């Protein structure tokens, strides 16, 4: 109950003892005891009075931002990003480390330690936990990155154990697209939603699913790995990774072969080559529409949030996909697709990883 009290105050879904008791389903007397304990431990504070619609004014509760901080790290084959989020859930600092082209596992692990070291050097309050958004397949129970084809030798890497040894705190792993779903819940457009999907076209292509307020993992932790789908192309079937990743879309729109090196700033390059009137734009929209219609029929989300470099294509790209979906069979006039380019930016994954650390942390009883 202590952990639930903290989470409800941090999300602002409850701001008083009365609303906390209602949100958690606890008796008022029990809840008051827990709140008093958290105040004594330095985690919760009373910030003033709030006039109630009925009865006496209620004491407003909040979290002590200086009680500690959470680190979030997220990475892919291009860079490692990290953020510091204080106890009240506010972002305070960030760090980034660019990876060399085709990085290997030792280089990536050194970059994880480097960005964490930068954050720790700037903080004066206790580090309470680290969340890590790991690309590809993840074994959450063992804290290992199981497989990611875009980092050399990335197989069964004991990420949690290595970071725990180095930084002496709890480390929690999750797939990097799933932590982005947590970022939308805490910092973005998913605050009041229970069913939504994250679209993550970056160096690969995948998605994460928030279903009835819970992340979907699947029996083998591969829910959302649709980049492994076989996708028909004129030259033969290819993996969806090779067709709808941000890098593949850039090369398609720029009419470049797969061997041509990628620009350093993919967002700006996409913006320069994107032409809504072109055949390449229209074929990209149609491919995305087909994928999204398939996903809609599987999990029926309220919203799709687009993340990654393709957000630079803006609302026009999302609207064109929505319109294309509406033309595909089966016709579902009462189930209009909604696609939103996320406003969270490049550190969404790191924010989500910090959110993961916040959600699993609980004060001592």
Structure description:
There is one protein chain. The longest helix has 21 residues. The mean pLDDT is about 90. The protein folds into three domains: about 60 residues, Winged helix-like DNA-binding domain superfamily/Winged helix DNA-binding domain (Arc Repressor Mutant, subunit A); about 130 residues, Nucleotidyltransferase, domain 5 (2-Layer Sandwich), CATH 3.30.420.40; about 150 residues, Nucleotidyltransferase, domain 5 (2-Layer Sandwich). It is built from twelve helices and 17 strands. α8 runs parallel beside α9 and α10 packs across α11. The chain is globular, with a radius of gyration of 22 Å. By secondary structure, it is α/β, with parallel strands linked by helices.
Helix content: 25-40%
C-alpha-based Rg, rounded:
22 Å
In total, the number of domains comes to 3
Mean pLDDT: 92
Category by helix and strand content: alpha/beta
Biggest beta sheet attributes: 5 strands, mixed
Give helix and strand order, one letter per element, not per position: HHHEEEEEHEEEEHEHEEEEEHHHHEHEH
Give the spatial strand order of the biggest sheet.
Answer: 5-4-3-6-10
Q: Please report which band the strand proportion falls in: under 5%, 5-15%, 15-25%, 25-35%, 35-45% or over 45%.
A: 15-25%
Query: What is the count of β-strands?
Result: 17
Give the number of helices: 12
At the fold tier of CATH, the topology name of the largest domain is: Nucleotidyltransferase, domain 5
N→C terminal distance? 9 Å
| CATH homologous superfamily identity of the largest domain | ATPase, nucleotide binding domain
Shape: globular
* CATH class wording of the largest domain: Alpha Beta
Second rung of CATH, namely the architecture of the largest domain: 2-Layer Sandwich
The stretches of 5 or more residues where confidence is low (pLDDT under 50) are: none
